[in-house]
Design a protein that fits this description.
By secondary structure, the protein is of the alpha+beta class. It is built from eight helices and eight strands. The termini are far apart.
């Protein structure tokens, strides 16, 4: 009789969940909302099933509480890792350090969160051997307990934009001021429209975090490196548009520099240098007195 009641209860709860989800799916088309409904109903009916079956087999909640009290110590030792994962799941659900759809980095792994479960969450991996944070095609399952031990970086929580930099090195002989003007114009073309949006997002994020950016517009920094003058473009971008933007920027840089007779890209090379012919006149060695 206990087996029959348990089987009927489980089958009834399973059928009820399917009916609820069928109604939800007819009314909602957003994949994220459907996912949240599916996970919520699964957890709800699991808890209901445990209570119904436990009451049937243990003759009421009082017996259930006694039974749980007797085995809790053994469970805590034997199932330490699963219980820690359950605690991690409770922390993720309550504090929401990330949600499904967020792009995160944890423990050396980066990816988009595509699933959350009681014992683990799942990432669609990015990076690794693939450049510019694009998908590798691998699925990574991470135990929920890692939320307590590993730092987590969220690309989407708080301030949803990231700073990206594109370093461009030109020769010392190039007209670096003209090159800087060209790069500044290119950076503004691709990122200026985000400034107003970023300012609004920053105002919203500042209510929760102490984020204090003074300058959100694109900028080009100047420095000298071994091969020439390095001009570094710095601008805001949405994380998932990083590679496409870098590609478009470099195409414009190559086009503009090809049309500039006084600007050359630098690269490691070697050539003879005649100091007396090419050096600055004031620095050339003076001939000995006659």
């Amino acid at each position: 009789m206990h087996l029959l009641v348990s089987a009927v209860a489980i089958a009834g709860l399973w059928l009820l969940q399917k009916i609820v989800l069928a109604v939800v799916y007819r009314r909602l088309t957003d994949p994220y909302t459907r996912y949240r409904w599916r996970k919520a109903t699964t957890y709800l009916f699991i808890v209901a099933g445990v209570l119904v079956v436990g009451r049937e087999w243990l003759e009421g909640f009082k017996s259930l509480a006694t039974f749980l009290g007797l085995v809790s110590a053994g469970i805590a030792i034997a199932l330490k890792d699963p219980l820690t994962n359950l605690a991690g799941w409770a922390f993720i659900v309550s504090r929401r350090p990330f949600d499904v759809g967020d792009r995160i980095e944890m423990g050396g792994h980066k990816g988009d969160v595509i699933d959350q479960r009681l014992f683990q969450f799942t990432l669609n991996e990015i990076g690794g051997w693939v450049d510019a944070d694009q998908s590798t095609g691998r699925i990574i399952h991470i135990p929920n307990a890692k939320i307590f031990t590993d730092p987590i970086a969220n690309y989407d929580k708080g301030f949803k934009y990231i700073w990206n930099e594109v370093p461009v090195v030109i020769t010392f002989e190039s007209n670096w001021t003209r090159a800087k003007e060209i790069l500044t114009a290119i950076a503004f073309k691709h990122a200026e429209h985000l400034t107003a949006e970023a300012e609004r997002d920053l105002l919203s994020a500042s209510r929760q975090y102490f984020i204090n950016y003074k300058k959100l517009t694109p900028i080009v920094y100047t420095s000298a490196v071994t091969s020439g003058v390095q001009l570094t473009m710095r601008y805001l971008i949405e994380p998932r548009r990083r590679r496409g933007t870098v590609s478009a920027i470099w195409e414009e840089i190559l086009t503009e520099f090809a049309n500039a007779p006084d600007i050359d890209l630098a690269y490691p090379t070697s050539r003879p240098f005649h100091h007396t012919l090419e050096g600055k006149p004031a620095l050339r060695p003076k001939p000995p007195d006659a």
